[in-house]
Amino acid sequence: MFNYVLVPATGTDSDGPIFEAALQVARLWSSHLQFLHVRIDAQKVFVAVASAEFGGSAGLESTIEAMEQQAITRQNKAEQDVRAFCARQNIEITDAPSGDRPTAEWRAETGEQEAWLASHGRTADLLVVGRVREDPAVARGVLETALLQTGRPVLIPSAKRPQLDVGTVVIAWKDTREAARAVAAAMPFIERATRVFVLAVEEGESSTGHSCDRLCHALRWHNPNTEVRRVKPVGANPVDTMLQAAARERADLLVMGGYSHSRMREVVFGGFTRRVLESADLPVLIAH
User: Fold this and answer.
1) What is the CATH number of the domain that holds 17?
2) 69/116 same-domain check
3) Residues 207 and 132 reside in one and the same domain
4) Are residues 71 and 102 located together in one domain of the fold?
5) What one-character DSSP code corresponds to residue 203?
6) Nearest-angstrom CA–CA distance, 79 and 88
């Protein structure tokens, strides 16, 4: 079960769908939501950049002050948004487990966002992270950190469909370690689903076909309403094939591994995984 869920809180309007999706998880398992905001260390960041570009930090005091104030304002807004959301949804803010209802806590740290997100994320059962932010570079950095540095599953809501429904779960299966980890991480959703489809895109000679049958056989001990769907590639892009097949099955959640042939971030997010995150109109649970 997902008893402890980490939710980044940035203090921007894009937090809304992420909070909503996290709440859906919390209602299913009476989860505790840790809302995490990371405030930049304005002085450290600006002095480092300015020193590198200009060879010194003279005359930077007013600029640093402005950056610090902006960071404080963003943190205050993030906290207000979290507390207002919890009040509207009747979620108690506490750091003590209740076990029978969703709860939440607010946590603020100062420093590098990636470092704090990785540190807190490694102790969570699940991270709920958005794919859309005001700053695309920030969004990509958060996703990379959540997926590659925490070792935990990541739920990425759809901006178009913030409400999370687990009626139909589609598993984008490949015979890989990453896909196996994603299936294991998604088991709480799989067990609750009305239908589960193991989806395999036929890509020439591969072991995916037989392993699909093995996975389906195993999953029927968790959910008897599990079937295999084999689809032929549409054009040259397996991502489009997979997403079209998921749409035909009216998938409410897509489960997949963060596929890569390299440990380099640019490769992980430059290929199959990145295309799914950019193109999918449904929530995605991903593990690497």
Assistant:
1) 3.40.50.620
2) yes
3) no
4) yes
5) -
6) 14
| Domain edge (last residue) among 109, 134, 156 | 156
Q: Please, what's the b/e burial string for 76-111 (b: 16 or more CB within 10 A of its CB; e: otherwise)?
A: ebbbebbeebbeeeebeeeeeeeeeebbbbbbebee
Residue 135 pLDDT level (bands cut at 50, 70, 90): low
Handedness of CA 157, 160, 162, 166 (dihedral sign): negative
pLDDT at 37 over 70: yes
CA gap 166, 163 in Å, rounded:
10
Distance in angstroms (rounded) separating the CA atoms of residues 43 and 50: 10
82 and 206 together in one domain:
no
Measuring CA to CA, how many Å separate 179 from each of 41, 51, 189, 244? 37, 45, 15, 19
Per-residue pLDDT, 139: 67
Residue 102 belongs to domain spanning:
4-156
pLDDT number for residue 69: 86
